[in-house]
Automatic annotation (TrEMBL):
Amino-acid biosynthesis is among the record's keywords: no
Domain of life of the native organism: Bacteria
Entry keyword annotation includes Signal: yes
Name of the protein this chain belongs to: Substrate-binding region of ABC-type glycine betaine transport system
Lineage per the UniProt record: Bacteria, Bacillati, Actinomycetota, Rubrobacteria, Rubrobacterales
Keywords noted in UniProt: Signal
UniProt cross-references to Gene3D superfamilies, sorted A to Z: Glycine betaine-binding periplasmic protein, domain 2, Periplasmic binding protein-like II
Annotated GO MF terms: transmembrane transporter activity
Length: 332
């Protein structure tokens, strides 16, 4: 298991001594800030941060890929940060590499969709030769906890009406098509073409999950035999009845590798924006909750609108996250 948060040793820089009075003043200011936010929350105010964020740098730039789990957590984070008075901008980027590089360069403040260990190579500049491949980026970003309870699930799936449970049963099932995502269109590894061809399947690669699932929906409604790439968390697990096919010989390789979905923030965010950083580090969701948010986003048409609808129906959780973030920021 990976630790909750990993960082490299920060370099010490010389600076003039800070007086004891100044340090006390800064500590009291931080406590007062959090106390005001807590009072507003207790009063049921919709925007407690009219006080809380204005004493800090109040702009937050969030990179997201458009993948449903990423859109869900990015939308929730945007809505909650705006409730704390921050000005938040979502930036849709094409793939994890651009998002990670954007945070490392300081263009973006946070990215929520780093699948560990799948994306270790993207986090490492030097790649091989390091004891910990994450070290290559940890001098530029902070790697936070996983916001998902547990780990992801992924693999090849078949509709339940096909009544198969293992990849070895694909042959003879009548399935001739395997619907997968093209390399770069997925947070997962590349599709194992050799194994899929061995089972007599014609591999069809799609440039987006939306395009693939449109064909999945069409074939599913016609009850045709086929297999497809599935993963969780994702709303497809609610919409369709299917089985993740067991792969006892690991013919699918890294496609079935479970992962933690971790967060990266730009280095220095914890010091400059402690309340925002604490909130980002506080939000944790179960698979079921993630998929609920995803479905709300599908109905609303945008990450923020869907997230706000979900938060309106889950006020206790919203209040707990804001309260815990305030307490964490006060103690940092």
């Amino acid at each position: 298991m990976y630790p909750r948060r990993e960082r490299t040793q920060k370099k010490k820089t010389s600076r003039p001594p800070i007086g004891r009075g100044f340090r006390l003043m800064r500590a009291w200011a931080r406590l007062l800030l959090v106390a005001c936010a807590a009072l507003l929350l207790a009063a049921g105010c919709g925007a407690p941060s009219q006080v809380s964020a204005r004493s800090q740098d109040d702009r937050i730039d969030i990179a997201y890929t458009g993948w449903p789990e990423d859109a869900a957590i990015a939308g929730l984070t945007q809505a909650l940060l705006e409730d704390l008075g921050y000005r938040v901008e979502l930036h849709r980027v094409s793939g994890q590499r651009r998002a990670i590089d954007g945070v490392a360069s300081g263009r973006y403040d946070v990215f929520h969709d780093v699948w560990v260990p799948v994306h270790e190579e993207l986090l490492s500049r030097a790649g091989e030769g390091r004891d910990n491949p994450l070290d290559g980026r940890l001098d530029e970003v902070d790697l936070l906890n996983s916001w998902l309870v547990g780990v992801t699930r992924s693999g090849l799936a078949a509709p339940s009406y096909m009544e198969i449970n293992r990849v070895g049963e694909i042959e003879g099932s009548g399935a001739e098509r395997a619907l997968v995502l093209a390399p770069g269109a997925s947070a997962l590894g590349p599709p194992p073409r050799r194994a899929l061809s061995r089972w007599g399947l014609e591999v069809e690669e799609y440039g987006s999950a939306a395009a693939m699932l449109e064909e999945v929906d069409r074939l599913y409604r016609r009850r045709e035999p086929f297999v497809f790439l599935a993963w969780a968390p994702h709303w497809m697990n609610r919409e369709y009845e299917f089985s993740y096919l067991e792969d006892p010989e690991y013919a699918l390789g890294s496609l079935t590798l479970p992962a933690e979905i971790r967060i990266i923030t730009r280095r220095g965010m914890e010091e400059r924006q402690p309340l925002a950083y604490a909130l980002i580090d506080t939000i944790v969701l179960t698979q079921s909750q993630v998929e609920d948010v995803q479905l709300a986003i599908r109905r609303a048409g945008s990450p923020e609108a869907g997230a706000r609808r979900w938060l309106a129906a889950n006020q206790d959780l919203r209040s707990a996250w804001l309260r815990n973030a305030g307490m964490q920021a006060a103690g940092s």
